[in-house]
Each structure stands twice: as C-alpha cells, then as structure tokens.
Design brief:
1078 residues; alpha/beta; 7-stranded antiparallel beta sheet
C-alpha cells in the first residue's frame, strides 16, 4: 500500500551518547530515517542529546531538539510540536525504553500520537524476557531452559532447577549491561544483584549455560503485507558465552548446512510474525549445539540494531532507510533498492566474505581484566571485505589499528604447549592470536576445538595461514606472479610478509609491483553481480584466477576533479564519532564545490561509510599499503587534487607521514606535513612557543629514563608526563613522586630518542580552555572558546566544558584569541586548528596545539550555528574565509558538553578522572542560563539530579575553602550535610550544620555503608595523592554502582549546585537548535 497521508509529522528519538553497546550505528540509522521520511514530505521532529552526530545537524530534521532523552522531555516536546506519530526503532535501546515508558503512561493516546515501526505490545513481547519466552514456546521454538526472577531471593530459590554455570540476562538493557555468566554461587549473587539494579523493570532471566554452542544472527525485514526478507545471515566466530558485540563475526554465515539455514530463516520470520513487528527491521539471535544440531532462540531486537548496521554495510542494503519507509505504510515491493534499482523485496545475496572484529580499550581502565563475557566491553569495531574468509580476516586484523598486520607472534613470551592451552581456555580479545600461536606450537585443529569450541572450519582456515607463514619464512617471497597472487589472496599484507622474511615493507611492495601483482576492486551491490549497480561502494581483493592477469576491476575511476578523505577507522576512546562527523562534512563541502569525494574507511557503524555520503567509498583498512593502492588506481583518470588528513584523528596523520617517507605521490591538502610534525614534536613545539613569547608550564623533554628523573626534579613534583604522537591522552599521567615516575617509565612507556616525553609542571587548580579556529593562511575566525569545568589535569575529552566561557574576563579572552592567531600564522594553518590553554592566576600557559580537527568540532558547530568542518574543507581546497558564509555574532545562549563514561562495564575500576581520556561519548545541555544547561547535560549523561536529601562531603585540605559556598547553598536549599572528620570540623567552624561519618579505614558504620543503604543523594569527594586516591576509591565506586551522582573536583561540585538551584527555581524548557541559530 502507498504511504500514509493521515500522518503529517513524525517524532524520531535518537540514541543519545556513544556508550558501549550503543555507538555510531544509531547516528547512521537515525540519519537515514530522517532523510528518507523528510524526502517523503513528512515534517520531522528529532530529539537526541548527542551533539557529535550528523542527525543533529540543523538541516537533517525540520525541528531538532538536543535535549536529554527522558520521559519528561519527550512529553514536553510532544506538547509543543504535536506530532502525529512517534518512531522509536531508530535510537537503540534508549529510544525503545523511553517510548515504551511514555506509551504505557497513556500520554501518547491522550495526545493522539501513534507509535509506528513497532507498537508497545511488540516492544514489550520482545524485550520482556518472560513474555518473549512464552511467545516463542507458543510457536514451537525452543528457548534455553530458564526462569525469571524479580528479586535476589527468587533467583536463589530457583537456581537448583538450572544449575551452575548459568547465564543472567536483565530485561530492557543494552549490550548485556548487568548480565554475565555465573560459574559459582558467589558470582551468581553478584551478577543477579547487578542485573536487577540495571533492569528498568527489575527483572532478570536466568538460563541454562549454552556456552560453547555456535551463535547466529538473522537480519529480517517485514512489511505490513507480511512480505519478509532475510537481509543477511551473520555467524559469530566466537562461540556462545561471548557477547555478540565482542565476538568476531562473519557474513554470510559460513558453517551452516542448507537445512540449518532454512530452519533459521523460517524461525526468524515466524518470530517476527508472533512478536508483531510488521513495519521494519529486526535482529533475531540463535544458538546451535554443534554436537546434536539442537537449535534454540536467544533473543530478538524489534528495532534497528548494532547488527543491522553491520548487515547494511555488509550487503549494501539500506536497512534503516527501508525500515523507516515501511513504518509509514509502504510495502517492500513498492520501494526501490538504491544500489541496484530493483525492488527492495529482492533478498540480498553476496559473493564475498565480510568480517567484523571488535576493538577493546582495557588498557584505559587499570585494574580491569581483559575477559569477555555476555556483557559487552568493546568500544568500537572494524569491518573488512575479502574474496574469501582468509583474506577478509587478515584485512580485518590490520583494520583494527592495534599494531597488527596479521597473526602476530608472541615470541617474547616463549609459550609452551601447556601454557598456550591455558591461554586458550580464557575468552579474551587476543584469543584468535593465541589460536594461531597454538598452531605454531604444533597443536591440532581437534585439540584447539576441544578447548575453545571454535568451529573446526574456521580453525582449519587459520591453520592454513600459519602453514603458509612457515613456508614463506623458509623459502622467502614467491618469484612469480601466480604464487605471489596466491599468498596475497589469503590476506597477507606487505607489512606481514616483510616481517616473515626479515625485510622492510618497501622491499615487499617493490617486489610485488615488479611482478605486477596489484589488487582489483569489486563493488558491493546487494545482488552478487546479478544486476548492474549505480553506486561506487568498493573493496579490494586478490581472489580470482591467479593465472589471469586481466581480472576485471570494477573501480573505473572517473575523469572528474577528486579528493580523497581518510577516515578515522574503528571507534576507540580518544578517536570516536566526532572525527567521523568531520569526514562527512568534508564530503558535503566537496559536493558544494563540485569536486568528487572519495572516502576511505573501515568502520561499519558510521555515516561516513554509508553508500550515499560520498561519491565513491572504499571500505578498506587505513594502512600504507591499502591506501597507496587506492591512490594508484584513482590517479589513473581525472585530477586527484590530494587527500584530506585533518579530519580522521591520529590515523590519517600517521599515514600522511608514511606517505612522505615512502614517496607516495599524494598532496596533503590544507596545513602541511611539517606543521603537523611541529605540533607533535615536543622539542620543535617548545622552541616555537619561545619564539612567539607564549608561556608554557615549566617543562623539559626527556629522551631517556635518567633524563626524565633529572627534569622532574628540576621542574618540581607533581608533574604531567605526555608522550609524543598520541591521541586521547594515551599514557599521560600526573606523577607525584620519584618512585611513581620510576614505575611509570617501567610500565607505561619506553622513553627514547625516537619516543621522547614532555614533562610539564602540573598547574594545580588552573582553568583549562579549548579554542577552535579556522584559517586560510591569512585570515582567521575564532569558531569557539570552551571553558573547562574541571580544572587542568583532567583530559579535555573527559571534562565538562562551557561555550561561551562562564568565568573568563573579556581581556583574558582577547589575549587568548591573539595567541591563537599568532600560532596559526606561524604554523601557516589552512583549515582547522585546536589550541588548549591553562590559566593560572590570570597567567596564560599553552598546553598543546593540534593543527587538525579536534573532538570539539561538532559541539562548536551546533552551539555557534556554523558548519566549521565544512568551512575548513573549503579552506583546504583553496577558498578564502572572506568568500565563505558564517555567523560571527556573539551567541546569547550557553551550552555544556559533558562526557559519558563506561565505568559500569568494568567492575572494580576507579572512576577518578585524570590526564588519560576514558569517556566513550558526550552529551550537550543547552539553555539561556548556565545552571539549567549544566543540569540538562547531567540528566542527558544519565546522572540523577537530586532536589533534596543528604549530600556527603569529603575534600582535600586545599579545597575546603572553595567547597564552602556550594555546600552552604545546598544547606539553604534544604539538603542535610554528612562529612568525614576534617571536612566536618571545617564546615562546623563555618557555621554549616553537618553530621560526622567514618571514612572506610576508620571502620563501620562508614560512608560506603551509607551509600550502599541508599541514604546519600549526592557525593563531593576530592583527593590528590596516590594513597588518598586509593583510600577513597570505594566511595566513588559504590556511588557509581548505586546510581548516586558524584563529583571529584570542586569546580564540578560548584556547577552541580548551580544546576540543582536552577531546576528548583525554574522549570526546564525545550527549544529546538534551529531557533538558537536565529
């Protein structure tokens, strides 16, 4: 049936901040939905709290609210905008849960708003574990033996019916939050307790262990005429027991028999019919016992999911777009697949293998164990496409950007067979590498299968790669094209081959090119080449007839003027969606200039890898070899103007250096390579700042451990240590003593001439400021000045910050602007530049300069109303600032950017912030008044803002005077004060009535008891020395686990009090960003 005309306006709810389990894929799905429905003539109202998204750009929806995603806010927006329908299936679990909450309250019905895409009955049936189990049993599908518990007592009373180990799955949660595998009774009590806390309806499913079974997913789309298609089957390489988001996965499923595949296909369609999803996409997960073929259904998501994004990129089929159009009444046969122009009812088929490999960040969370369970831990993922599994897998490994160019050896560890068997028992991020090592040590496929439960077919593929490695080590590189093609078709990179023969990568590249062994490019077309495709979405492969030199290449470069954009690769802490946002804007700007955009990236979650973001998309690893080959093929036709490396974070910057070293013929657009090096090279940077007479904190550059000790003594403790060429503050630390410095040098970094470290005096209690500027080399535009709320010492990516500044004088701001312009001139910046300052006692100190896009760009763009990444792209191409349109007027609103952290995923990890970045995402609070804006940012990040109750205060001596006023304000607002000894004495002397409580070391009843008993509403706790930090860790951890807001800096506490005060005095209003722009 045609689209519905009774609906005129649709409210779409986004997913909020990037968190583990819910990442950029929902920007991709939300953007597709907004664009598709807007094109159909619907008025689109969007709410999302994440400013770092393409979907929250003011042009994407008609009305855009960057507001907290809560029931209260959604209801306010509905009353204001009066939408006819609400689409809850594009914003992950966040959107689904809040939509269900609003629907169950009767609010939608009262206001004549219809849920489309999935009704509340379907959502509840799929998400409520008990309802889902009963529904599956009613249609003859088996589920694992299980029971439901709503309390710890109920869980304990029934565990004998299941036995241990058992899998605990909370209802209505994301990425397995609060769940896990309990191997003993103590673990069972701990995981069930956590699961009940995390489930919105206090419900957990406790099921029999099916660890070791094979896991499969089916991406299904169904319309209102009951047409169903399987878009893609996905197989987890890791067996059951590892969350699918943490598992290596492949598409299509490779080890199913046809009979098993048909069973899963039929079961998936039956599931959608029973649950009631009839207008959109769903993900259905199954487990198969490899011993007897028993199939059980695990769960289904009645919405676009993480796997939907993977399936969409794997096949080219635009799932989110199609799902959005189905939600407004279309049927599959009425819609066209953009890739092939065939009806969307044609089931996609693929003639290549796609591999997804997750990326982890355990190193960011000291004390966390790198163990994989049913609770997701990965922070990003890379996807690779190859002509066979081996090529796809090895491309995937090098796409991770974690120093892998294939199956690396563990030579330094000298592992024995017994030791490797012990390693194989543990599900960890390196398990697949340990499997390869096991083959090197002589273990057989059957031995490894018995330990890991990896399917023998996958193991045989890895075994063959290792056998070829041994052959290459023994005999060297092949001396003929046929055999060289053969090893390249197994995914071997030039870099890996170089290591195997103990040569440089350049040697292998030259030998390969001498033999004319080059990849060909094939198109992702959804139909296995059955129909002609209209989109240039490509991957490289060496798979084909090794004896034929004329294998057809589908790349067909155009005769246009063109620019390559290097993406950021897999999401990681320090390099996330903000950089992808910039890459997308580069494509949009090039389209304005009528220049062809060529995107190279390997992240399946992002808008940049959508088939229609750029003119041409290469889904390839961001390595010297892979990018050089694309440069080679694209240079054959048209005019390749150069490459944009400013937008993808550290990844393209490192590549640009490699291009220079290896004489790769590509021009770097915008700021030149020397300026990029100058900013990263601590020695050269220090000299430039001295020339410009810009103060730096007292510092020195150490090229040896001994030098580091001497410089630290000279500078004076505490000091901040910064390695060169890092992103996200990797390995940065505040060091308080010589012993701590010795430990740091021993464990964190290798200090050498080629890897020097900068040792800065730590500017205690300084205000940190971020400034983003645009430059064409002559003229300059200060795009945004952000004042950090946490003082210097907390990584800029982890600190809340305010735009415009809330406490800096005009004179100080003018001095900062002048310093930025002098730096940009001296470095001949063309495009974007980010500068970070610290202000101590009105003295300005420079911390660092980044002549590239920073993670603040999307936030600054949203607050200022200027698309600064788009403007920067045009400057890089040669436009002048004077020719471009942007708004220079001072803004009369205030916005707060707040970081979001994954601490709950890592039990036992301390939550205190420092110079190494640990946040996964961000939210924005915007208002005319600072307090409301800050409160909104806290609510959006998942923090409860208390309006009454007990505040606990324990601060270091140097903070006592500064904490007085915020605590006094809380007392005046009716809060009770609880404090530890020294803080309590200070507050009493100042006339604030406070109750004394023990520190943990002083014995019970102590503060952690009070927190665990839910007697505390708010925590202010500041510490400094390593011992004090260690002693107070349990306060921060128990606050986190009990959902109590806590602030570990006085500046954070001051802002929190301002927020509480504003909410108590004034109601939060909601205003679309389009109105702020005016």
């Amino acid at each position: 049936m045609p689209k519905r005309n009774d609906i005129k306006s649709i409210l779409i709810i986004g997913a909020g901040p990037i968190i583990i389990g819910q990442a950029c894929e929902f920007d991709y799905s939300g953007t597709q939905a907004c664009k598709a429905l807007k094109k159909e003539g619907y008025r689109i109202i969007l709410v999302n709290s994440n400013p770092a998204t393409i979907m929250t750009d003011p042009e994407v929806a008609d009305v855009t609210y960057i507001e907290p995603i809560t029931r209260d806010i959604i209801e306010k927006i509905i009353l204001k905008e009066k939408p006819d329908a609400l689409l809850p299936t594009m914003g992950g679990q966040t959107a689904l849960n809040v939509s269900l909450e609003v629907a169950n309250s009767g609010f939608l019905e009262i206001n004549n708003v219809e849920l489309i895409g999935a009704n509340k009955e379907a959502i509840s049936k799929a998400e409520n574990r008990e309802e889902f189990r009963e529904s599956m049993n009613s249609i003859g599908l088996k589920t694992p033996k299980s029971y439901i518990a709503h309390s710890l007592k109920e869980a304990k009373d029934n565990i004998d019916s299941i036995g241990l180990p058992a899998i605990i799955r909370p209802s209505f949660t994301l990425g397995g939050t609060g769940g896990g595998i309990a191997y003993n009774f103590d673990e069972f009590i701990e995981i069930v307790s956590d699961g009940l806390k995390n489930s919105p309806n206090n419900e957990v499913l406790i099921e029999e262990s099916i660890i070791g079974w094979k896991e499969f997913e089916m991406e299904v789309v169904r319309d209102n005429r009951d047409n169903c298609i399987i878009v893609c089957s996905i197989e987890n390489v890791d067996p059951m027991g590892v969350h699918t988001g943490d598992s290596i996965t492949v598409a299509p499923a490779l080890t199913l028999t046809d009979k098993e595949y048909q069973e899963l296909r039929n079961a998936s369609i039956k599931t959608l019919r029973e649950i009631g999803v009839d207008t959109g996409g769903s993900n259905v997960q199954f487990a198969i016992n490899p011993k007897d073929g028993r199939i059980v259904i695990i769960e289904m998501n009645p919405r676009v999911s993480r796997s939907s994004a993977l399936a969409s990129k794997a096949t080219g089929f635009p799932i989110a777009k199609i799902a959005a159009l189905l939600a407004v009444g279309y049927s599959l046969d009425e819609l066209v697949n953009d890739i092939t122009t065939t009806p969307a009812s044609f089931e996609p088929s693929i003639d290549y293998v796609v591999t997804k490999i997750p990326r982890f960040a355990f190193e960011k969370f000291p004390g966390s164990e790198p163990l994989l369970t049913t609770s997701m831990k990965s922070v990003g993922e890379a996807m690779s496409i190859g002509g066979n599994f081996q090529e796809s897998l090895q491309k995937g490994l090098r796409s991770l950007e974690s120093d892998l160019d294939g199956f690396k050896e563990f030579q330094n560890e000298n592992l024995s067979q017994d030791e490797i068997k012990e390693r194989l028992k543990i599900a960890c991020p390196d398990r697949i590498l340990y499997i390869a090592e096991a083959f090197r040590l002589g273990l057989s496929v059957s031995e490894i299968n018995l330990i890991t439960y990896y399917d023998p077919w996958f193991l045989k593929q890895i075994e063959e790669i290792i056998l070829w490695e041994k052959l290459i080590e023994k005999d060297g590189l092949p001396n003929n094209a046929e055999n060289f093609k053969l090893i390249k078709s197994m995914g071997f990179s030039d870099s890996r081959l170089a290591k195997l023969i103990n040569k440089e990568e350049a040697f292998v590249r030259n030998e390969r090119i001498k033999l004319n062994v080059r990849p060909v490019y094939k198109k992702v077309d959804t139909c296995a080449a059955e129909f002609q495709t209209k989109t240039d979405y490509m991957y490289s492969t060496y798979v084909g007839d090794i004896y034929n030199n004329d294998v057809y290449c589908e790349s067909e470069p155009t005769n246009n003027k063109k620019v390559i954009i290097l993406g950021g690769g897999p999401n990681r802490i320090g390099q996330g969606i903000e950089f992808d946002y910039c890459c997308c804007h580069a494509s949009f700007a090039l389209a304005d200039l009528d220049i062809e955009s060529i995107m190279i990236n390997c992240n399946p979650e992002t808008v940049s890898t959508d088939y229609d973001t750029s003119d041409r998309l290469y889904f390839e690893p961001l390595t010297l070899e892979d990018v050089s080959e694309i440069i080679n093929i694209e240079s054959k036709n048209g005019v390749l103007l150069g490459a944009i490396v400013q937008f993808g974070g550290q990844t393209p910057l490192k590549l640009s250096k490699e291009f220079e070293i290896n004489n790769i013929p590509i021009k770097i657009l915008g700021t030149n390579q020397d300026a990029i090096d100058l900013a990263e090279d601590r020695d050269r940077f220090k000299n430039l700042m001295q020339e410009l007479d810009i103060k730096q904190p007292k510092n020195g550059i150490a090229k040896s451990a001994e030098e580091a000790m001497n410089i630290a003594d000279e500078v004076g403790y505490p000091v901040v240590i910064r390695p060169s060429y890092v992103l996200g503050g990797r390995a940065m630390e505040i060091v308080h003593s010589e012993n701590q410095l010795k430990k740091y040098i021993k464990e964190a970094v290798i200090v050498s001439g080629s890897s020097p470290v900068l040792i800065d005096s730590y500017l205690r209690d300084a205000i940190e400021v971020d400034i983003d500027t645009l430059s064409d080399g002559n003229d300059f535009y200060i795009a945004g000045i952000l004042e950090h709320i946490e003082e210097a010492g907390v990584h800029s990516g982890d600190s809340a910050c305010s735009m415009p500044p809330f406490s800096l004088s005009n004179d100080l701001i003018n001095d900062l602007k002048l310093s930025v312009i002098r730096i940009a001139k001296a470095m001949n910046v063309k495009g974007l530049m980010n500068v970070q300052f610290a202000i101590k006692d009105k003295d300005i100190f420079i911390l660092e300069v980044n002549p590239r896009a920073s993670r603040t760009v999307p936030f600054v763009a949203k607050v200022s109303g200027n698309p600064i990444a788009k403007i920067a792209t045009k400057l890089m191409i040669g436009s002048k600032l004077a020719e471009l349109e942007y708004n220079e007027k001072e803004i009369d609103h205030i916005a707060i950017k707040e970081a979001v952290f994954p601490f709950k995923r890592f039990p036992g990890v301390d939550t205190i912030l420092g110079p190494e970045m640990r946040s996964t995402g961000e939210v924005m609070g915007i208002d005319k008044e600072f307090g409301i804006a800050f409160a909104k940012s806290q609510i959006a990040s998942g923090t409860k803002v208390p309006l009454n109750g007990v505040v606990f205060v324990s601060v270091k001596d140097s903070d006592k005077e500064k904490i007085f006023h915020p605590v006094k304000d809380l007392e005046n607002m009716g809060f009770s004060i609880l404090a530890t000894g020294g803080t309590c004495d200070f507050l009493e002397k100042k006339g604030i009535k406070s109750e004394r409580i023990n520190k943990v070391l002083q014995g019970t009843p102590h503060i952690v008891d009070a927190i665990n008993d839910n007697n505390i509403s708010l925590v202010f706790n500041t510490t400094e020395t390593p011992q004090a930090i260690k002693d107070s860790k349990s306060i921060r951890r128990s606050s986190l686990e009990n959902g109590i807001p806590y602030y570990t800096t006085v500046s954070g506490a001051v802002a929190a009090v301002a927020g509480i005060k504003s909410i108590k005095e004034d109601e939060m209003d909601v205003i679309p960003i389009q109105l702020y722009k005016k």
